[in-house]
DNA sequence: TTAATTCATAACCGCTTGGTTATGGGTTTG
DNA sequence: CAAACCCATAACCAAGCGGTTATGAATTAA
């Protein structure tokens, strides 16, 4: 089920959390330990960030023994794209003239 | 000058602020008073939200006597679209096989 | 079994933040 | 000029949040 953009915006508003998600998108599945090594904050802080990202649907976990692997779920970004393009659409639809639109965009 | 997505995410993380911006995108230029009437919070609160949105480049103001009109600047959403699509790109580029990609997206 | 490792949770803390009321500058109206 | 109006800023406050250390459950290694 698609989630509203609220959780997504709130989750991605924090730089540390965004960096963790970005690392998972760039380099694929990683353990909490690996993520902690790059995060610059303590392991419990990373775990809490992962909890927030998981609640927003942005990451998924996979347990393997005492290791926990996390991977990005970039499909969860879809509502964000939807909302953003919808804002642009609302704005654009208020003009009939395309040139007028482009002129205003360069203002 | 393009801004980093950080200010954008932080600015749009608040529901009230996002509603104000959405109202400006939907219905065009509006005064602070008109925005306050729909916001459900006090006028100073709206002014502060507009200040945050302005600092993020998401809105612009136009003074006309004692009225202040605000309008959306949806072009400022571009870094947000860039970041989001970049995340998807990073993630996709880690697979050679397109079918494999699609399968994983449906997981 | 004992010790070490990995991670999540609990408890706590300081800062940020979103809200309020109070106030004042600038502008229009009477 | 005086009064009303529009908005921004200041000052303050409660709540949320991101960080920490401490601890424990679960798993692996010795």
Q: Largest contact between protein chains?
A: A-B, 29 and 29 residues
Any idea what the shape of chain A is?
elongated
Q: Please tally the helical runs of chain A, counting DSSP H or I stretches of 4 or more residues.
A: 6
Q: Unreliable stretches of chain A, pLDDT < 50, 5 or more residues?
A: none
Helix content of chain A: 55-70%
Cα(first) to Cα(last) distance of chain A is 39 Å
**Quaternary class:** homodimer
**Largest sheet: spatial strand order of chain A:** 1-3-2
What's the count of strands of chain A? 3
* Arithmetic mean pLDDT of chain A: 88
CATH fold description of chain A = Arc Repressor Mutant, subunit A
Number of domains of chain A: 1
Query: Helix and strand succession of chain A?
Result: HHEHHEEHH
Structural class of chain A: alpha+beta
CATH architecture of chain A: Orthogonal Bundle
Rg result of chain A: 18 Å
Largest sheet of chain A: 3 strands, antiparallel
Beta fraction of chain A: 5-15%
CATH class annotation of chain A: Mainly Alpha
Domain HTH arsR-type (chains A, B): 1-92
Protein name (chains A, B): Helix-turn-helix transcriptional regulator
Pfam family, one (chains A, B): HTH_20
Keywords (chains A, B): DNA-binding, Transcription, Transcription regulation
Provide structural commentary:
The structure is a homodimer of 107-residue chains. The first copy, chain A, has a single domain (5-105), classed as Winged helix-like DNA-binding domain superfamily/Winged helix DNA-binding domain (Arc Repressor Mutant, subunit A, Orthogonal Bundle), CATH 1.10.10.10. The first copy, chain A, is 61% helix and 13% strand. Chain A has six helices and three strands. Chain A has a three-stranded antiparallel beta sheet. In chain A, a hairpin with a 2-residue loop joins β2 (59-64) and β3. In chain A, α2 crosses α4 (43-55). The A-B interface holds A 5-6, 9-10, 12-13, 15, 18, 21-22, 25-26, 28, 60, 72, 74-75, 77, 80-81, 84-85, 87-88, 90-91, 94, 105, 107 and B 5-6, 9-10, 12-13, 15, 18, 21-22, 25-26, 28, 60, 72, 74-75, 77, 80-81, 84-85, 87-88, 90-91, 94, 105, 107. The structure holds a DNA duplex (30 and 30 nucleotides).
């Amino acid at each position: 089920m698609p989630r509203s953009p609220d959780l997504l915006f709130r989750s991605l508003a924090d730089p540390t959390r965004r960096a963790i998600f970005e690392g998972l998108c760039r380099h694929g599945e990683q353990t909490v330990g690996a993520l902690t090594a790059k995060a610059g904050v303590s392991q419990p802080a990373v775990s809490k960030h992962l909890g927030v990202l998981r609640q927003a649907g942005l990451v998924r976990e996979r347990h393997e023994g005492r290791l926990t692997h996390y991977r990005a779920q970039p499909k969860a970004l879809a509502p964000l794209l939807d909302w953003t393009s919808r804002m642009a659409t609302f704005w654009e639809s208020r003009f009939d003239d395309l040139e007028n639109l482009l002129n205003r965009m360069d203002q």
